[in-house]
Write a structure and sequence with these properties.
The complex is a heterodimer of chains A (about 350) and B (about 725). Chain A is an alpha+beta fold. Chain A contains eight helices and 20 strands. In chain A, the strands form four sheets. Chain A has a six-stranded mixed beta sheet, with helices on both faces. The radius of gyration of chain A is 25 Å and the shape is elongated. Chain B has three domains: about 140 residues, no CATH class; about 260 residues, MetI-like (MetI-like fold, Orthogonal Bundle); about 200 residues, MetI-like (MetI-like fold, Orthogonal Bundle). The longest helix of chain B has about 40 residues. The chains are: A alpha+beta (about 350), B mainly alpha (about 725). The structure holds adenosine-5'-diphosphate and magnesium ion.
Chain lengths: ~350, ~725
């Protein structure tokens, strides 16, 4: 299969209400052709609703939806060139694997033989050549998942939608299948919108992540941007682990915010923060523990867990309990040890309260 | 979509020019006109007979054709077509309603008497095709204006079902209303109320030592008693079934299900054979205790007993779900709070079941009011509405206006109960029955409750068993009560075959075959309409869905007698003239049993994961293809269940049918009622036994197909979903 005609997706002030429940509040969205974008967020934040709006399974209460530059707001799901992979796979249990994959082609009017050929090709692409005659029930979960992907991509959709495609697989398989999906997407140049509530999965597959919260976009950006520059405590906590330490900004000049943690002064750039209370984001990998004699924030180790490659500590300090990850080959501390906590100025980010 | 409209335009124009517009003498499906050369189409009627008013549909379709090809802007085109097709539809229906020589003439004055008095026969196949085409042109255009998310198939289905329900439920019921206001030579609003509130209907004399109460009061009292009785019996059975280790549960189950496949008056008959003046029990009691043989059975008590026997299974089926639905953890919680079993039952379980009990009570109430067979056989001097309606139509002093008044009284009672049930159950039931993912044990019954249940339920079960043995026994004896020698006479008289000539000499064959044919045609149609409605209700969103659901469930609340009366009032004359045909029997079954199909369909549809049809739709299939290739194949079991149930209901129903049978199309139940009225109990019972066996065979046959299908399906679906 050659590269296909991928389409962009644009939401313009899209609102979705279910009776009294507002599932989406004025959503603006821009997804470029050929990009894999992940919608990430806690359960109930409106990810599935967004996906179903793109598919045409729901109609927007307000606003405008474009696919490939065309207004599709009032088009039915049938007439949109969008395919979807469902969380439950939704394979038709009364059809064979080949019939399942060929379904979209035959209902689109393609001749049976040609459709069968294309279906076989699609199955090859997901590594299931020769499984066509089986029933979905005669496949393992991971294989069923791949049939669902094959069924969606043989239609050469402008946009491929995946709603938590891995949530029914066990942890090992999940990693394998997600890499496979990413590979196919890149090889065919598909535009893909991928829904998950697992931040690690999102970081691993996405070009860009859109984090949603309470029916709104909380922050969008590449995985690295989100990790390095969270714009809120929620994002900082949701993307990777973070210690959130309440601080008092005493002075702001030229965009530099000055504050104290323990006995040490810090300053960092953040145009959005004003003087007053805020929170400092401290990634657990960027905190160093030293001997108590050393200069730093004094603390006491209250928990230590040895995990092979790394050691995880909880350290009680005057700034509150801190979660710290240290490499295993560094000097180990025991529970009850007094330590001095060192935090580099570059490693500290500020977010508003 | 333009092609689809063009196709319907062609069909409609063909209906106006090539098919006979009116009902031909041979009936709707008669094709004798095929040989005649020129059928009496709408066009020839206009040109040759001068019935200019038939121009409406032709004009409408031609204008739509012009709009389709002349207007470029799609939404404007769709809107114009919608308006024109709707206007054509309304005008065509209106001319049929106004220009008639018989029936209610409400609009006569409005339209100038001359044309209206001209008269014309009822709609035939040509008119049918034209009207359906106009309807679909209108619905497809409506979908093109953006309604129903632009889905022509769904909008058309909604349109078709609404039209069918309007024509075959609301239109006939409206006729009753009109008739109720009729006085000699016109209509009067003021006459209605004195007649409706007549003491013959609502009188309470019996309370004050008078002769008897009004018919409506009788019906009401009977219904309240029956509802209370069946609810208590049903609860006792449900408790025994779920909360005790009673040995013969299987047998109990059979005893509770058999009455469902029993023609309604058969239980009444068996009661006569047992407790009538020369019944077995009466004889024995007279022998042993010297009690006087009386006719006590004919009246309130007889009907009451028969209804208890007939309707307890319904209460049981409702309540077993309710009793199982009471969350064990709540009962366990109560017991850990050191309440004993009796306290737990009274303070926790029973209150939790209250909505279910109300539901069972209201169902029993509606069933009792609508019951026709038992009062007909056992009523005696105790007049109730459903039978009085019948006698007001067929009796020596036929009085349709009185029948209409009685029907309205009955309808207002059942409708109030129906509304009460929806209001009550809709509000309360959700909160109490928690999910199934509740392990733990339901509390056993306290000894007192258990004893009460046994004492209530077991004698009843014994009585049912005796009643059914009587039915079998009675069909094999010469003359019940007088000559108990064994005989096959009744069977040979009913189902005799002369093997030398191969002729069917039995008197019952005719009605038996008619019954089977009509039931087998009606059953799949009922299932289809029911499942289609269920699909729309579960899987589609549209404006007015609540009203749509309500109107499709409404026919459940309309008693059979009322339906029967309304059908002969509505379909005895043009524009829809169906009495005396087999079509009217099929139609009455389809629309009476439709709510059952809808309920079954909703249950089955809810178990089918909606992502399956969503997957199909996102893969580019339209909703028609989705229904055909994904939903229908997976709905097999539900389809068969709905077919079985409508088949059984069609065979056993008597109340509506008895008004609509004709010499040509007689049905088993009305044939049996005729025999009962002649006192030929033997043949009536033999026939009933044959019907029961027929239905059992049909059910087993269908079960065989359903059973195997369900097994394969669930096991595939489960594996697919598990992974
Ligand atoms: N069909 C519906 N009817 C009513 N509320 C709905 C419906 N679908 C979703 N919602 C509500 O909209 C919100 C967002 O749901 P959803 O998009 O499914 O969240 P998630 O991010 O977990 O996929 C939730 O509060 C949910 O209850
Ligand atoms: Mg979701």
């Amino acid at each position: 299969m050659t590269k296909i005609n991928a389409g962009s997706v644009r939401f313009d002030g899209v609102v979705k209400r279910f009776g009294d429940v507002t599932a989406l509040k004025r959503l603006d969205l821009d997804i470029a052709a050929g990009e894999l974008v992940t919608l990430l967020g806690p359960s109930g934040c409106g990810k599935t609703t967004t996906l179903r709006l793109i598919a045409g399974l729901e109609t927007a209460s307000d606003g405008r939806i474009e696919i490939g530059g065309e207004d599709v707001t009032h088009l039915t799901a049938t007439s949109r060139k969008v395919s979807m992979v469902f969380q439950s796979y939704a394979l038709f249990p009364h059809m064979s694997v080949a019939q399942n994959v060929a379904y979209g082609l035959t209902v689109g009017g393609m001749r049976k033989t040609e459709a069968a050929q294309k279906a076989e090709h699609g199955l090859e692409m997901v590594g299931l050549a020769g499984y066509g005659e089986r029933l979905p029930s005669e496949l393992s979960g991971g294989q069923q998942q791949r049939v669902a992907v094959a069924r969606a991509i043989v239609l050469e959709p402008e946009v491929l939608l995946l709603d938590e495609p891995l949530s029914n697989l066990d942890a090992k398989l999940r990693r394998h299948v997600r890499e496979e999906i990413r590979q196919i997407q890149q090889r065919l140049g598909l535009t893909a919108v991928y829904v998950t509530h697992d931040q690690e999965e999102a970081m691993a597959v996405s070009d860009r992540i859109i984090v949603m919260r309470n029916a709104e976009i909380a922050q969008a950006g590449s995985p690295k941007e989100l990790y390095d520059c969270p714009n809120s405590a929620f994002i900082a906590d949701f993307i990777g682990d973070a210690n959130l330490v309440p601080v008092e900004i005493d002075r702001v000049d030229d965009g530099q915010c000055h504050f104290t943690i323990g006995n040490r002064r810090y300053s960092t750039t953040n145009a959005l923060i004003q003087a007053g209370p805020a929170q400092a984001v401290l990634r657990p990998q960027s905190i160093n523990l030293d001997n108590p004699q050393m200069d730093g924030l004094p603390g006491e180790v209250t928990a230590a867990a040895y995990l092979g490659r790394e050691i995880q500590y909880t350290v009680e300090t005057s700034a509150g309990p801190l979660f710290v990850i240290a490499e295993a080959n560094a000097r180990a501390h025991k529970r009850g040890d007094a330590v001095s906590v060192n935090i580099a100025n570059e490693a500290v980010r500020l977010v508003a309260n | 979509m333009r092609q689809t409209i063009a196709l319907w335009l062609l069909a409609g124009l063909a209906g106006c020019t090539l098919l006979p517009w009116y009902m031909t003498s041979g009936g709707f499906w008669s094709f004798e006109w095929v040989g005649d050369g020129t059928p009496d189409s709408a066009l020839t009627q206009i040109v040759q007979v001068g019935r200019w008013w038939l121009i409406a549909p032709i004009l409408a379709m031609l204008t739509v054709a012009i709009v389709q090809f002349g207007v470029v802007e799609p939404v404007r085109r769709a809107k114009l077509s919608l308006w024109i097709a709707s206007a054509g539809l309304v005008l065509t229906a209106l001319q049929g309603l106004v220009i008639v020589r018989a029936g209610p003439r409400l609009f006569e004055g409005l339209f100038g008497g001359e044309v209206a008095a001209a008269g014309q026969p009822g709609f035939g196949i040509g008119a049918g095709v034209a009207l359906i085409s106009l309807l679909f042109i209108a619905t497809i255009s409506l979908s093109q204006t953006g309604r129903g998310r632009g889905d022509a198939f769904v909008v058309s289905m909604i349109g078709l079902i609404v039209a069918l329900v309007a024509v075959f439920v609301f239109y006939p019921v409206a006729h009753i209303l009109i008739r109720a206001f009729e006085i000699p030579g016109g209509y009067s609003l003021t006459q209605f109320f004195p007649r409706f509130f007549d003491s013959g209907l609502w009188g309470l004399d019996c309370l004050f030592g008078g002769q008897s109460c009004g018919t409506a009061i009788n019906s009401l009292f009977l219904a309240l008693m029956t509802a209370a009785g069946t609810t208590i019996l049903g609860l006792a059975f449900a408790l025994i079934f779920t909360r005790t280790d009673f040995r013969a549960k299987k047998l109990l189950r059979v005893l509770t299900v058999i009455p469902i496949i029993t023609p309604p008056f058969v239980i009444g008959l068996a009661l006569i054979l047992l407790f009538g003046r020369s019944g077995t029990v009466t004889e024995i009691a007279a022998e042993l205790f010297g009690t006087e043989k009386t006719r006590w059975l004919y009246g309130f008590w007889g009907v009451y007993f028969a209804q208890l026997l007939s309707f307890t299974p319904i209460a049981f089926l409702v309540l077993i779900g309710v009793v199982q639905g009471v969350s064990p953890s709540m009962e366990e919680a109560s017991q850990t709070l050191s309440a004993d079993r009796w306290q737990t039952f009274r303070r926790v379980s029973l209150p939790l079941m209250r909505p279910g009990l109300a539901n069972a009570f209201l169902l029993g109430f509606i069933e009792s009011l609508a019951d026709f067979g038992n009062p007909l056989v056992l009523g005696g001097g105790y007049n109730v509405l459903s039978t009085d309606i019948y006698f007001a139509i067929v009796g020596s002093a036929a009085d349709p206006a009185k029948a209409a008044i009685l029907a309205i009284a009955l309808l207002s009672l059942t409708l109030s109960a129906f509304l009460a049930q929806r209001w009550w159950v809709g509000r309360k039931s959700y909160a109490t029955i928690t999910g199934k993912a509740d392990s733990g044990q339901n509390a056993g019954l306290s000894p007192v409750v258990k004893a009460i249940c046994y004492w209530i339920a077991l004698p009843w079960a014994a009585l049912t068993a005796v009643v059914y043995s009587m039915i079998i026994f009675g069909s094999f004896v010469k003359l019940w009560g007088y000559d108990h020698s064994f005989t096959f006479d009744h069977y040979t008289r009913a189902f005799g075959i002369d093997f030398t000539s191969g002729r069917l000499t039995g008197v019952a064959w005719d009605s038996y075959f008619t019954t089977l044919t009509i039931s087998s045609i009606a059953a799949p149609l009922t299932a289809l309409v029911g499942l289609a409605t269920a699909y729309l209700l579960v899987r589609q969103k549209f404006v007015g869905k609540d009203a749509f659901e309500f109107s499709t469930m409404l026919s459940f609340a309309i008693p059979g007698t009322v339906i029967g009366v309304s059908y002969i009032m509505a379909f005895n004359f043009p524009p829809i003239e169906l009495t005396g045909t087999s079509i009217i029997l099929i139609v009455v079954f389809v629309f009476r049993n439709m709510p059952v199909g809808v309920r079954g369909g909703i249950a089955a549809m809810s178990q089918l994961d909606s992502s399956l049809d969503e997957a199909s739709v996102t893969l580019g299939a339209n909703s028609f293809t989705t229904v055909r290739r994904v939903i229908l194949p997976l709905m097999g079991p539900a389809l068969f269940a709905a077919i079985t149930y409508s088949f059984v209901r069609a065979i056993t129903s008597v109340s509506a049918v008895i008004f609509l049978v004709s010499a040509k199309h007689n049905m088993a139940t009305s044939f049996i009622v005729g025999r009962v009225e002649n006192g030929e109990f033997g043949i009536a019972i033999a026939y009933s036994a044959v019907l029961i066996v027929t239905m059992l065979t049909a059910i087993l046959l269908l079960q065989l197909i359903i059973g195997t299908r369900r097994l394969r399906r669930t096991d595939r679906v489960q594996t697919a979903a598990r992974a």
